[in-house]
C-alpha cells in the first residue's frame, strides 16, 4: 500500500514538473520571439524616442541608458527580467508606462471577446448539434454554409457592411466607440468592464448605451466564433452518435432528446471545452481589425496605433500580454479537460 502511494505521488510530481517545464519553455519562447522581432525590424527605438534630428552624443547616451550598447545575450537577460516584472518600458505615444496603458485598455478587449464567445457558444453549440443530428439534410447544409462564410469573409469587410446597414440605415446600434460622450465623463467605471459596472451601479441608461455600442462588434466576433464552434461541435457529435453506447441507449428505449442532449453532447462537451477556450483566446488576440473598424479602445487598437507610430515598447508589451493570456487560457483548458475526462488523469 505504501509503495503504491509513493508511486502515485511520484507520478503526480513528474506530471507537475513536466507541466511547469512546458509553461516555462513556452513563455521563454514567446519572450525570445518578441525580443528578436524588436531587434530585426528597421526601426531604431532610440530615434523613435528622440526623433531624427537629435544630436549624435544624445543618441549615443540614450542608447547606453536603454542598454542597446550591451551584448545581445545581456540585452535578452534584461528584457526577460523586465518582462517578468511587468516592466515593458515607456510608451512613446502616450508617455505612460506601457503596463499602465495596457491595464487601461485591456478590459475593453476582455469585455468584447467575452461577449463574443458567449454569443458564439450559445448559438454555435446548438447549431452544431442540429447539423450532426440532421446530417445530410437541408439544415445541415445551411449550418455548414454559415460556418463556411464565417471562415471565408474578411471580418473588416463584414464589419463595414454591418455598420452601413445596422447603424447608417436602420439606426439599431450606436456609432463606433465604447460609450456616448454624454456618459463618458459622468460614468466612473470600477472594473473597466462597462456592462458589469453600469449594472452594479444601477445606471440603466449607461448600460443601454454601452450595450448599443458593444452588440454589433461583439456579434461579429460571436459569428466568427460560432463558425468554428458549430463546425467542431458537429464533428464531435457525429463521432459520439456513431458509438456503441448510443446504439445501446436506443435499444433500451430512451428518448432521442435524452440520447442527444444527455449522453452524446455530455461526452462531446469534454473536447468542446478546449475548442471554446481556444476560440476565446483567438478573439482576445485577433480582434485588432474589429477594434480598428469600430474605434473600440481596446488592446488591439492600442497595438495598431503604437505600430503606426513606431512605438515598439507598446507593441512588444501588448504582444507579450496577449501571448501570456493565450498561454494561460490553454493551460486552463488543459486542466479542465483533465478534470472532465477521467481517462486523461491516468496518463
Automatic annotation (TrEMBL):
PROSITE patterns referenced in this protein's UniProt entry, alphabetically: ABC_TM1
Protein known as: Peptide ABC transporter permease
Family, as annotated: Belongs to the binding-protein-dependent transport system permease family.
GO terms for MF: dipeptide transmembrane transporter activity
Keywords recorded for this protein, A-Z: Cell membrane, Membrane, Transmembrane, Transmembrane helix, Transport
Keyword check for Zinc: no
GO cellular component, one term: plasma membrane
Annotated TM spans: 20-41, 112-133, 145-168, 210-229, 268-294, 314-337
Primary localization class, coarse: membrane
Subcellular location: Cell membrane
InterPro entries for the chain: BPD_transp_1_N (IPR045621), MetI-like (IPR000515), MetI-like_sf (IPR035906)
Pfam family, one: BPD_transp_1
Domain named ABC transmembrane type-1: residues: 106-337
Membrane topology term: Multi-pass membrane protein
Lineage top rank: taxon: Bacteria
Organism in which the protein naturally occurs: Pararhizobium polonicum
